[in-house]
Amino acid sequence: MELKKVNESLPENHIILVTVINAIYPINVSTLHKVCRNIGEVDRLVIFEKGTFVQALVEFRTVAHAAEAKKSLHGCDIYNNACTLKVEFARQERLNVKRNDDKTWDFTQAEDFGNIKDEPAVQRKVLLDEGPPSAGFGGPSRFGSLNSGYGGSGGMEQMGGFGGFEDTPRGGWGGGYQMDRSPVLMVYSLDPDRFNCQRLFNLLCLYGNIVKVNFLKSKEGCAMVEFSDPESVDRAARNLNQLKMFGTRLRLEQSRKTHVEDIRKPHELPDGTDSFQSFLRDRNNRFDTPERAAKNRIIPPTKILHFYNVPKMDDDRLIDVFAEQHAPCPTRVKWFESKSLKSASGLAEFDTVEDSVEALVMANNTKVETEDDGRPYDMKLCFSRANN
User: Whole-prediction pTM value?
Assistant: First the structure.
């Protein structure tokens, strides 16, 4: 067994060698730093691959902290039944880090991880209580809760609007990953001519990080959606079950499947797109860090959409963005005072909730070009509780 292959003859060192066994989830600097920082100050970290294993060299500030890490982390899983750690002392006496990215980092120079994404999580002696891009927090790990108290009032400001704007998330990332609860959602009664993988993602990404979407060939209008955690399934089903759109009512149920299989040769949907798509690395997932997750409003659909991450434009141009996607168009638009020259935001009101939902399905995450620098924006949409 790989865990028993530890070289105990190496002298104590402030650098440890970590071998990640069964690394079915990607491992980056941010992930390992969260595991190690609870033991002591980490100065440098380097990740590399050796054969079938992911390995890392972690340089602690002191030998005592490295020794404690070797004792505490060896044999533990980062995630539930995945990413098992074998830990031993390294031969190196110092790590040379030339740049900060997802594989190497010098914490004595900088600790801002920028766009590095945390990966899926869940719990055997679980070292991270948070899930991958959005998985819920489980019970306390051996180091206590790494993000205890998270939930908050959200990072988005109270912006006002047509009489107010609610931004406090409900449900958050509560609860832990339980093996008897599936992260797979079954969605029934989808209009086969209107829905595809991307459009279903556009709707469900409001409630959790999506890993895969697969439309069943044997049952028209039925799709399996794998989230990064079961809590997202609960949130989606609670807020969207029996929702009417495109003339039918959706039915959402938790699946008995534990995951969605990769489809090597997906069939073609009526619009010509593939019936299967992976969204594991999709940057439009919104729950990949606690900070980003806190900005999401977990509410059922309303007839007002909050739009953001768009260039400043006049009302007619914004309405054209919806029209170009063959989506219902808003009847009223209100812009918020912009605090940034790079993007703008506001509220778009529709005649009915059904129109609002259909508009979000068709136009969420749409690329909007700007005439100034040609840089495309990915327009984000979500439901708002703003009063009329």
Answer: 0.56
